[in-house]
């Protein structure tokens, strides 16, 4: 649960700047928060297939945003990956 409290701190910092809600970092943080909530939900409800589908869609959106960020600004990408404690995407 430490990760969720850390994400809430990051979200509070991001929410202070109302202008940055459309930024890639804010969107990735909010998707990560949703992913963690859905993951904990699916641990209890293993046969909730609609939530599994929603989780896969959100994972894909976050993956595309992270790919965009890694192409545009590698330093911001590395910093965000470190803050959220998520794995770096695999390269082919």
From TrEMBL:
Gene that produces this protein: rps15
The answer to whether the entry has keyword Plastid is yes
Matching entries from PANTHER family are given as: RIBOSOMAL PROTEIN S15, BACTERIAL AND ORGANELLAR (PTHR23321), SMALL RIBOSOMAL SUBUNIT PROTEIN US15M (PTHR23321:SF26)
* UniProt family annotation: Belongs to the universal ribosomal protein uS15 family.
Q: Give the highest taxon in the source lineage.
A: Eukaryota
The protein here is known as Small ribosomal subunit protein uS15c
> Chief subcellular site?
plastid
The annotated subunit structure for this chain is: Part of the 30S ribosomal subunit.
- UniProt key word Ribonucleoprotein: yes
Matching InterPro entries, A to Z?
Answer: Ribosomal_uS15 (IPR000589), Ribosomal_uS15_bac-type (IPR005290), uS15_NS1_RNA-bd_sf (IPR009068)
- UniProt xrefs under HAMAP family: Ribosomal_uS15_B
Pfam families per the UniProt record, alphabetical: Ribosomal_S15 (PF00312)
Gene Ontology molecular-function annotations: structural constituent of ribosome
Species: Eclipta prostrata
Report the locations given in the UniProt record: Plastid, Chloroplast
**GO biological process per UniProt:** translation
């Amino acid at each position: 649960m430490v990760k969720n409290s850390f994400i809430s701190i990051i979200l509070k910092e991001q929410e202070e700047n109302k202008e940055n809600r459309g930024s890639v970092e804010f969107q990735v943080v909010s998707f990560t928060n949703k992913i963690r909530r859905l993951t904990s939900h699916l641990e209890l409800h293993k046969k909730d297939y609609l939530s599994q589908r929603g989780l896969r869609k959100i994972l894909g959106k976050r993956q595309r945003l992270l790919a965009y960020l890694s192409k545009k600004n590698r330093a911001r990408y590395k910093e965000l990956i470190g803050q959220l404690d998520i794995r770096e995407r695999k390269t082919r």
